[in-house]
Structures are given as C-alpha cells and as structure tokens.
Amino acid sequence: MNILIIGSGGREHALAWKIAQSHHCDALFIAPGNPGTASIGTNLAIQINDFASLKNKVLENAIDMIVVGPEDPLVNGIYDYFANNEQTKHVNVIGPSAQAAQLEGSKAYSKHFMQRHHIPTASYAEFTISNYQEGVEYIKAHALPIVLKADGLAAGKGVIIAFTHQEALTSFEEMIQNKQFGEASAKVVIEQFLQGIEVSVFALTDGVSYQIIGHAKDYKRIGEGDTGLNTGGMGCVSPVPFMDQVFMQKVEDRIIKPTIHGIQSENLVYKGFVFFGLMNCGGEPYVIEYNCRLGDPETEVILPRLQTDLVSLLAATDNGTLADVNIEYQDAFFATVMAVSGGYPGDYKKGFPIHGLNQAATIPDALVFQAGTGFKENEIVTNGGRVLTTTAQGTSLQNAVNTAQKALANIQFEGMYFRKDIGYEFK
Ligand code: AMP
Ligand code: GLY
What we know:
With 427 residues, this protein is of the alpha+beta class.
C-alpha cells in the first residue's frame, strides 16, 4: 500500500515511524513533513490545505491511503474532496467528512450533539451579536470561574477561563464585538467550569464500530507545576495510573458508545480518529471537547505503546472489519517530553541549529520525534514553537520520564526549554 500522511508535526513524525513498521506499507509520503519524516519517507512540498496539488501527487504516486494529521484540512473537507472525485474515490482517507468534523470545528455543534445524545459535558449557553445583551446578563449571573469559547477553530487560543465577571465581560466583548478571532468568535459558547484532571482518550471508528487505541495525560501549561500559559502540550504519559478499568468503563459506556451511536444515527460519515478531551471530575468523566484527529504530543506516546499494526487497523475502517481487530499494547509505561523554543507560547525566534539529534537517538528505549524543525543549508534548525520531543519507555512512568530526559539531555539549541516535571503526580 502507498500511504500519504498530511501534516508536519511530532504527531506526523510518530505516525510515519509507526506506519513505516507495517509490512503493508510499500511507499510512504508526507506532505509537507519535516526533517524527521524525511528520514523515514518522502516529503512532498505541498501545504496541507492545497487539495488540488495533493490530488496530483496521489494520482502520480498511486496512493491508496491518506492519513490526515491536523484538523484544518478535515474541517475544510479533505475527506469529501477525495471521496467525491471519480479519480480518487477509491483512496481511503482516514478522517471524518467536513460535516462530521464539525464535532471539532464548531463548539456549538459539538455541544448540541452531546446534548442530543445525553453525553456528560459542562452546562452551557451560546450567544452571537443578535443576543449579545442576553449574554452579558448570563455572564453577570454565572458562577465563577466562567469558561468562554470561540465557536470556531482559533488555533487553540479560543478558550478563555475568566476568574472575575469583569474579565469574562471584557473577553465576551472582544470576541463578539471586536471579532478577536474573526468569524470563529462570531458565536461564543459560555460554559460551566469543570474542576478535575484533564485526560485524553483515543478511538478509531468507521462510523459504526470503534476500537479504543490508547489514552494519555497531556501537560498543557508552559511552567512546571502546571503554571503559566496554555500550550499545545509540553509532554505526556501513558498509561495513566488513575485511568483504570473502572474509569475507562465509565468513559466507554457514557461517552464513547453514545458518541459512536450518535455518529451512526445521524448518518455522519466518519472513518477516522476520535480524540475525546475529558475531565475526570472525582472519578466521573465529562467531555470538554471532541477533536477529529490524534493529539500532539499524545500520539508520541500512544503509538509507541500500541503494539497492533497501525496500517491493518486503519485499513479495517474501510472494509467493515474494525470490530474484529485485536488491540494490543506494549507491556510498559511511556512518556514524552517536549522541547520548545525560548519564549513559546509567546513570540520566539526560529532558525537556530539543533545539535545532538544523533546522540539522542542512541539512548536505549528512547525515540526522537521532530516537530517544528526545518532544513537550512543541510543543517536541521528550529522552525516552530514546539521543536521536538523525546519519547521513552520504562518499567514505571518515572523510569520512562527519566529516560526521555536522558535522551533530551543530548540535544541543544539556543533558547531550548522543557518541563522537567512531566508525570510529577505519579512519582
Ligand atoms: P478546548 O479548546 O475546548 O480543549 O479548551 C482548551 C482548554 O481549556 C482545555 O484543554 C481545558 O484545559 C480548558 N477547558 C475547556 N473547557 C473547560 C471547562 N468547561 N472547564 C474547565 N476547563 C476547561
Ligand atoms: N495535545 C492536545 C491536542 O492535540 O489538541
């Protein structure tokens, strides 16, 4: 099978690493990829939303399967683009249709969906310019803290947790009146704050059946002890000790089954990953959000932990055999630690040479996944906020974290920063 991965982050490097291990994979392409993926397959210099150029390469290289990493092309209809074209309809695109991708693309859509299917989530209301004043009154009467969410995609920046009514009112005005996030904040969802521990669960579905393929805890804040600004994710651990059988059974019965059933009963076309962003509130799971893709850096721990052949698993979404697949995990703990550019998640500089990648790769039980990296005159340089991550396995979470840090200790670039406390609660 010839396979194309779309994206250029650590998630896509991990996908490439896992897919390349499958004997079903004949040729692997990544668009646009990064220097890490270039060491595994062939990078194609095509942007993720340039469907016409992607189609040309798909035909030229007889691609059978497209694995879509990020949400943007999914929300923009990459699934439908290939499915509705005579020349490409045979290609198995792993990802939901544009309509089903609204589960991630619109907070209001996903809240309605959860309400229709009785899936536990924070209570909420939604507002636009037409009922703005009602929103102001709603905020004034709301318990603190208050969560405000831009309805559409806002590159992970559209959620504000306000600790005073004034702060909430200011954000509300910014989003709706001043179009802080453009069209994405023309509608705002205001919801109850959920107190708990955030965790991620991943499933693969064909729209009828599903398989759980892993779970993780992501460390989202920039600072140690979970302080400072939110980031895309600074590290992950998997499996998570408190996500035991009792908790996972609740997740499956109350959240995953009704979600997949809802997808089926609403005739949503969905062949791909479902990322359940959950809050564990005293042992009870609530949905914070759906994503229609894998997480980053969650992928960098769940794929190394997954023993099952990923290509067979993905192929099963297309031939009705997903329910029969046997999911197996490595009998070990996994951790990943993300190295970021100085200043991230605020402004940062790019283009600094990265040293020590080869030495890091020699550490036993460790892997390096590149994210925001690029080539400059044959040298690998920083090219983003989250630059690279080291994943390790161990006999305990702490052991895995220590090995990931040991691998990272070989790597240097100007301004490099990483959290030294990933997995701190599980010591
Ligand atoms: P989202 O884009 O919906 O994932 O929100 C971004 C982050 O805001 C989440 O990862 C949570 O850390 C936090 N968050 C979102 N909704 C809530 C909520 N209802 N209660 C508490 N925290 C939340
Ligand atoms: N790590 C969170 C995400 O991928 O959205």
